[in-house]
UniProtKB/TrEMBL annotation:
Protein name as it appears in the record: AsnC family transcriptional regulator
Molecular functions per Gene Ontology: sequence-specific DNA binding
Native organism taxonomy: Bacteria, Pseudomonadati, Pseudomonadota, Alphaproteobacteria, Rhodobacterales
InterPro entries recorded: ArsR-like_HTH, AsnC-type_HTH_dom, Dimeric_a/b-barrel, Tscrpt_reg_AsnC-like, Tscrpt_reg_AsnC/Lrp_C, Tscrpt_reg_HTH_AsnC-type_CS, WH-like_DNA-bd_sf, WH_DNA-bd_sf
Organism: Alloyangia mangrovi
GO cellular component, one term: cytosol
SUPFAM superfamilies listed in its UniProt record: Dimeric alpha+beta barrel, Winged helix' DNA-binding domain
A GO biological-process term: alanine catabolic process
Domain of life: Bacteria
Signal sequence residues: none
Gene3D superfamilies xrefs: 3.30.70.920, Winged helix-like DNA-binding domain superfamily/Winged helix DNA-binding domain
Keyword field contains DNA-binding: yes
Keywords of this entry: Activator, DNA-binding, Transcription, Transcription regulation
Annotated HTH asnC-type domain residues: 4-65
Length: 150
């Protein structure tokens, strides 16, 4: 589905903000009948525009007290080196996001752990042991005035 019209766009905006909204309430918000709204949502899901729904967890309630964005530079710029790095990172529970980026480093990671000690352990025992890694820069999150990730 490549043609997202005005109604689909409205549906997507509401679902992005309120993923648990009932179909009836969603239909009312976007000006459709319940059955027409359900058909559109099903089509958006089937086409892959909507990839899934998830819960937004409270960091405080789940024990996450430390968040950092980390840039990682690789010393060797081959496909094999990237794949080896990605294999390790995808298995690391501390890594909530991993993005291959442009610029002077190859990756941007979002790390969530309990505290600074846990981050130091991840930094030393995971990132610091990977032979592909040549540079690590950490950016500690001090606050998030806007965070639309869900």
């Amino acid at each position: 589905m490549s043609n997202i019209d005005y109604i689909d766009d409205r549906i997507l905006r509401v679902l992005a903000a309120e993923g648990r909204i009932s179909n009836l309430a969603l239909a009312e918000r976007v000006g459709l009948s319940a059955s027409a709204c359900l058909r559109r949502v099903a089509a958006l899901e089937k086409s892959g525009v909507i990839r899934g729904y998830r819960a937004v967890l409270s960091p405080e309630k789940t024990g996450i007290g430390f968040v950092a964005y980390v840039t990682v530079g690789l010393g060797v710029h081959t496909k094999e080196s990237q794949l080896a790095f990605e294999r390790v990172i995808t298995r690391a529970p501390e890594v909530k996001e991993c993005h291959n980026i442009t610029g002077n480093v190859e990756y941007l990671l979002r790390i969530e752990v309990t505290d600074l000690a846990a981050y130091k352990e991840f930094h030393t025992e995971v990132l610091g042991t990977l032979p592909q890694v040549s540079a690590i820069t950490s950016y500690v999150v001090m606050g998030s005035p806007k965070d639309d990730r869900a």
